[in-house]
């Protein structure tokens, strides 16, 4: 048998490190979000998955290159209170 290699745990972003969509929500009901400063190759992902509150699976993701989604910086927000 081979050697078991421990992979580092990825640190989950905090609410302050995320930008939320203005109105678009995941099919689970959580707001869509992306990390601040992610760049043009990023994507909008379910905020519950990003924050570690849900497993990946039946959640939405929208690549910046394919979808134009307004962010909370345009007024409204899906950020949890």
What's the arrangement of secondary structure elements?
Blueprint: E1 18-25, E2 31-35, E3 43-46, H1 47-50, E4 61-63
Antiparallel strand pairs: 1-2, 2-3, 3-4
Features:
elongated; single chain; 81 residues; mainly beta; 25% strand; 1 helix
Low-confidence segments, given as residue ranges, are none
Q: What radius of gyration results from the CA coordinates? A: 14 Å
The number of helical runs is 1
Percent of residues in beta strands: 15-25%
* Count of strand segments: 4
Could you give a short account of the major beta sheet? 4 strands, antiparallel
Enumerate the strands of the largest sheet in spatial order, edge to edge or round the barrel.
Answer: 1-2-3-4
Kindly state the percentage of residues in helix.
under 10%
Distance between the termini: 49 Å
Average pLDDT number:
92
What class do helices, strands and sheet pairing give? mainly beta
Write down the secondary-structure element order: EEEHE
What form results from the Cα inertia axes?
Answer: elongated
Explain how this protein is built.
The protein has one helix spanning 47-50; strands spanning 18-25, 31-35, 43-46, 61-63. With 81 residues, it is mainly beta. A four-stranded antiparallel beta sheet has the order 1-2-3-4. A hairpin with a 7-residue loop joins strand 2 and strand 3 (43-46). The longest helix is centred in the middle third of the chain and has 4 residues, at 47-50.
Brief write-up:
The protein has 81 residues and is mainly beta. The protein contains one helix and four strands, in the order βββαβ.
């Amino acid at each position: 048998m081979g050697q078991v290699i421990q992979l580092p745990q990825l640190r989950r972003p905090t609410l302050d490190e995320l930008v939320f969509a203005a109105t678009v929500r995941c099919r689970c009901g959580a707001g869509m979000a992306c990390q601040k400063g992610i760049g043009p190759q990023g994507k909008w992902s379910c905020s519950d998955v990003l924050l570690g509150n849900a497993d990946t699976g039946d959640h939405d993701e929208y690549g910046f290159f394919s979808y134009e989604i307004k962010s909370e910086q345009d007024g409204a927000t899906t950020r949890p209170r």
